[in-house]
Structures are given as structure tokens and as C-alpha cells.
């Protein structure tokens, strides 16, 4: 018997969000590739370049999902921790990338990370901060576990600056994306939530202000694909 689709809402209850991602884990990467017309690979490469991982560094990939981004970081030789609160996503990540000796997997709540202070040379999140019930608390936790001088990179859906492209993106998200997800064989209701979460997510300047508020410095961002996503970068001050 097929389980009823688990649909999260903008209340972002952790159990419901985690359960939703558990259900879409097997087809998650395939669906993302289809619905982004292959841009997900370009965005992942841009994120890896922004993190600039180096051999010997310890890097946290929070909200890692199926660990595609983590594997890209680990290719540098850095020790990468793929952390996510969805056990289904982590299981899929282990199945695909568990053979990498410098990649480990940890189930974690972004607002209460199971790591000590100043453990990581760099921390990163891709398309997951907006799924956290208290994103400012997650940003503060990332700050806590980063070493002084360490790097932060957040890649997240954002607000296209062009009104025309913004309108097109809104139409695509609300009318096309859920249908694509259903055709791809995953939980279409999950992608209804995806559209809602993107629509309600703050713009680039607001997220940058949240980072500064948490103590990050040298905050900057770069729009990718006309601002469909924005790559935010920052650094933790040296004590």
C-alpha cells in the first residue's frame, strides 16, 4: 500500500518537513534536474567554487539531502560532513556516496547542531535554509560551529530582480513545477509546498541583513540564473 503523500506547510513543523523529504528522497535528484532544466548541476558547481574546499579542511554541508553537494565538496579532498534532519535523504545519500572515505553522514537539527564550537573551516547550505522553522537560529548555529576566519556559503532560491522574469518565475513555480514533479513520479504536494516556501522567502538584501545580524562579516551575494537563486557568502571574524 502506498503511503499518503506528506505535505508540509509554511508552519514548517520539523516532523512534517522531514517526513515530506523522506518520501521524495529516491526521486529527489532526478526531479530537481528535470524541473530546473539541468541548472541544478550548474548551481552546485558554483556553490562548490564559492566554498573553495581544500584538502585537510573540515566542512559542514547542512541540509545536504542526498549529499550530491557534499560529494562535490569532498572531491577536493576536504573532510565533509553531510548533515540533514531527514533520515530518508541521508539513507539515499549513503547509498549513492557512502563509499567516499572523507564523507560522513549525521542526522541533525539545523537549530541545534550536534557539533562543538568552532569545528569547521567552512559551512554551507543549499536550498534548505528556507525549510527551517527558525532560519535566524540556524544562521546563528552555523556561526557557532565555524572557526574564526571560516567561510559561509548559502545557496537558496531568491527574488529575480527583473519584474518580468519574476512574474515568469512565479508562474512556472505555481503552474508548471508541481505538474513536472507529478510526471516525474514524486510527491507533487511536496512541490506545492516548494512553491509556497519560495514565494514567502525574503529577498537577497534581507537574507544578507540576517547574516550580518548574526555576526558574519564580508557579506555579499551573487545572483545565478537571473536571480532564481542567490549565492550568499560571508566570513566569521577572527577573534
Number of domains: 1
Low-confidence stretches: 1-5
Sheet/helix structural class: alpha/beta
Assign the CATH architecture: 3-Layer(aba) Sandwich
The CATH homology group name: Vaccinia Virus protein VP39
DSSP summary, beta strand count? 7
GO molecular function: demethylmenaquinone methyltransferase activity
Binding site for S-adenosyl-L-methionine: 66, 84, 109-110, 126
Organism: Microbacterium bovistercoris
Pathway: Quinol/quinone metabolism; menaquinone biosynthesis; menaquinol from 1,4-dihydroxy-2-naphthoate: step 2/2
Structure explained in plain terms:
- It is an enzyme of class 2 (transferase).
- This is Demethylmenaquinone methyltransferase.
- It is a single chain.
- The chain has 239 residues and is an alpha/beta fold.
- The chain has one domain: 3-Layer(aba) Sandwich (Rossmann fold).
- 44% of the residues lie in helices and 21% in strands.
- It contains 9 helices and 7 strands.
- It has helices at 14-24, 28-35, 39-51, 68-74, 87-97, 135-145, 163-183, 188-200, 204-214; strands at residues 58-62, 79-84, 103-107, 120-126, 146-157, 217-224, 229-235.
- The protein has a 7-stranded mixed beta sheet with strand order 3-2-1-4-5-7-6, sandwiched between helices.
- The longest helix has 21 residues, at 163-183.
Amino acid at each position: 500500500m502506498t503511503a499518503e503523500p506528506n505535505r508540509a506547510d509554511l508552519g514548517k513543523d520539523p516532523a512534517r518537513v522531514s517526513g515530506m523529504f523522506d518520501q521524495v528522497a529516491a526521486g529527489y535528484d532526478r526531479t530537481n534536474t528535470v524541473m530546473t532544466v539541468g541548472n541544478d548541476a550548474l548551481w552546485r558547481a558554483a556553490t562548490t567554487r564559492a566554498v573553495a574546499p581544500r584538502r585537510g579542511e573540515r566542512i559542514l554541508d547542512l541540509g545536504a539531502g542526498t549529499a550530491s553537494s557534499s560529494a562535490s565538496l569532498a572531491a577536493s579532498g576536504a573532510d565533509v560532513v553531510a548533515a540533514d534532519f531527514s533520515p530518508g535523504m541521508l539513507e539515499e545519500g549513503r547509498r549513492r556516496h557512502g563509499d567516499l572515505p572523507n564523507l560522513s553522514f549525521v542526522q541533525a537539527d539545523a537549530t541545534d547542531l550536534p557539533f562543538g564550537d568552532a569545528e569547521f573551516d567552512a559551512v554551507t547550505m543549499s536550498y534548505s535554509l528556507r525549510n527551517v522553522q527558525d532560519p535566524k537560529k540556524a544562521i546563528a548555529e552555523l556561526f557557532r560551529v565555524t572557526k574564526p576566519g571560516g567561510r559561509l556559503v548559502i545557496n537558496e532560491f531568491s527574488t529575480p530582480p527583473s519584474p518580468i522574469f519574476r512574474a515568469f518565475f512565479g508562474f512556472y513555480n505555481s503552474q508548471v513545477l508541481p505538474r513536472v514533479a507529478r510526471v516525474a513520479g514524486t510527491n507533487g504536494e511536496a512541490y506545492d509546498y516548494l512553491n509556497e516556501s519560495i514565494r514567502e522567502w525574503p529577498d537577497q538584501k534581507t537574507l544578507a541583513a540576517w547574516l550580518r545580524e548574526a555576526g558574519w562579516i564580508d557579506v555579499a551575494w551573487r545572483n545565478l540564473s537571473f536571480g532564481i537563486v542567490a549565492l550568499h557568502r560571508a566570513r566569521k571574524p577572527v577573534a
